[in-house]
Design goal:
This protein has 5 helices and no strands. It is an all-alpha fold and 73 residues long.
């Protein structure tokens, strides 16, 4: 699984949850441009940053990756 897949899934999850980049920025104190970069590029996101974002979305990191793996098959 590459970082780009993680970014694509993060973006899809944010949209499904009905959040804007500004909402996420306000909640976790990471600039919206950085979040957008993680969503749209193959930049590797740090685990603690991923956990902050997923915490805001109300999903565990385990479930996030489990769902990604299930979507691959």
């Amino acid at each position: 699984m590459v970082a780009k897949d993680v970014g694509k899934e993060l973006k899809a999850l944010r949209i499904r949850k009905g959040y804007t980049l500004q909402d996420v920025q306000n909640a976790i104190n990471i600039h919206k441009n950085t979040i957008s970069f993680y969503e749209n590029h193959s930049e590797k996101i740090k685990l603690n940053t991923l956990e902050k974002i997923l915490d805001f979305y109300g999903i565990s990191i385990y479930i996030f990756f489990k769902n990604m793996c299930e979507n691959i098959h």
